[in-house]
Write a structure and sequence with these properties.
CATH architecture of the largest domain: Beta Barrel
CATH superfamily of the largest domain: RNA polymerase II/Efflux pump adaptor protein, barrel-sandwich hybrid domain
Oligomer: single chain
Strand order of the largest sheet: 2-9-12-11-10-13
Order of helices and strands: HHEEEEEHHEEEEHEEEEEEEEEE
Number of helices: 5
CATH topology of the largest domain: OB fold (Dihydrolipoamide Acetyltransferase, E2P)
Number of domains: 3
Shape: elongated
Distance between the termini: 17 Å
Helix content: 25-40%
Largest sheet: 6 strands, antiparallel, barrel
CATH class of the largest domain: Mainly Beta
Number of strands: 19
Radius of gyration: 39 Å
């Protein structure tokens, strides 16, 4: 989208064109004989475009904010003293890469203790198995009571259960020991470390840092409810044609006015209207291989892909602001200037979409407006391409 004129310059241009429009309308109201009074010298030259319906691409513009595709908070899974950092703040990290180390000594000691306890339980279980094996043939020979044998079997089962409990405790202790290494859960770009070395951290509670996955990156924006309804209505009436695949293109304009080079897609539109904003949240996903876009940036989102079929447009500079209306100057079949009130829609590049007041074949003056007077003859110097601005046209909004 071309740069727009600063508000002060636009206001000055609008004021000047309003004066011209008022003068033109006043001239148009003069008696016919006065309006068509002969002029000295040849008629002034003007440049005009011939109105011709055509398919016009439409771009919708919204204010958005960037966010990581995945935003993860890194917290320790065990508590203790933060022993050291294992990464550089703000750097890229791979999934599984170590970020922090919690002091592992207490967890190693606990694992050693439980390993010894497990070994003892295993030994008791082995002894109970041997005892049961010795008593069983004696029961069959009637030398040992059945109760003694049942007691031996019960002791074996209790020893096996105790061994399994000890094994589970040892497994948990080894897991906790492994958790003293705090890895990156995803690949991405790290934030700053929020706890210094030597700090006491709590399991699950202490936030150590964040990781953002920003290639690709999301841009969140809000579509006003009234505009969303208008787009739906125009699509239903055939005035607006949506993309064939249902996905709109998304381009990003940065805060300094520069265009981000990579083009993305709108991949999500909420079904709910947010009562806080009065709009519908939408999201675009943009390739960001060089990490130029960072989470939290504000940007303008240009959503394209829709088309206005067989629409009429004229260059922006051809539209004059009249009292409560907009007008253009046309050249009729006799070569005379004729003011024409028009209804306009949105801006598209350097052109206005005209929704009423013009017909195919009308010739609209775009340059030399000041020299044109209603009812006076003019000479069209070099007709511009149908429906578009001449090659020498300045950027939109500039005089």
């Amino acid at each position: 989208m071309p740069p727009r004129t600063p508000p002060s310059a636009r206001h000055r241009r609008a004021a000047a064109l309003s004066l011209i429009a008022v003068a033109l309308l006043a001239a148009g109201c003069k008696p016919k004989e006065q309006a068509q009074a002969p002029q000295a010298g040849p008629p002034p030259e003007v440049m005009a475009v011939t109105v011709a319906p055509r398919d016009i691409p439409v771009t919708f513009e919204y204010t958005g904010q960037t966010a990581g595709v995945r935003e993860v908070e890194v917290r320790p899974r065990v508590g203790g003293i933060l022993l050291k950092w294992n990464y550089t703040e703000g750097a890229r990290v791979a999934a599984g890469q170590s970020l922090f180390t919690v002091d592992p000594v207490p967890y190693q000691a606990n694992a050693n203790r439980l390993e010894a306890a497990f070994a003892g339980m295993e030994a008791r279980h082995a002894q109970a198995v041997r005892e049961t094996a010795r008593i069983k043939p004696l029961v069959e020979q009637g030398m040992v009571t059945r109760k003694a044998y049942d007691d031996a079997v019960s002791n074996e089962q209790i020893a096996a259960a105790d061994a399994r409990t000890a094994r589970a405790a040892l497994t948990q202790a080894r897991i906790d020991l492994g958790y003293t290494n705090v890895p990156a859960p995803i690949a991405g770009v790290t934030g700053r470390a929020l706890k210094s070395e030597g700090s006491l951290v709590e399991a699950q509670n202490t936030l150590l840092t964040t990781i953002s996955q920003i290639d690709p990156i999301h841009v969140i924006f809000v579509i006003p409810e009234n505009e969303h309804l208008r787009i739906q209505r125009e699509a239903a009436e055939g005035k607006l044609k949506m993309p064939a695949d249902g996905h709109f293109e998304a381009r990003v304009m940065l805060a300094d006015g520069s265009a981000f080079p990579n083009v993305g897609k709108v991949d999500f539109t909420n079904v709910r209207v947010d009562p806080a904003t009065g709009g519908i949240e939408a999201r675009a996903v943009i390739p960001n291989p060089d990490l130029r876009l960072r989470p939290g940036q504000f940007a303008r989102v240009l959503v394209g892909g829709a088309i206005r079929p067989q629409a009429v447009s004229v260059p922006q500079r051809a539209i004059l602001e009249g009292p409560g209306t907009k007008i253009v100057l046309t050249v009729n079949a006799k070569g005379l200037v004729e003011p024409r009130p028009v209804q306009v829609g949105e801006w598209v590049g350097q052109e206005w979409i005209v929704t009423g007041g013009l017909a195919p074949g009308d010739q609209v003056i775009v340059d030399g407006i000041i020299k044109a007077r209603p009812g006076s003859p003019v000479k069209i110097a070099a007709p511009a391409p149908a429906g578009g601005a001449p090659a020498s046209a300045p950027p939109a909004g500039k005089p």
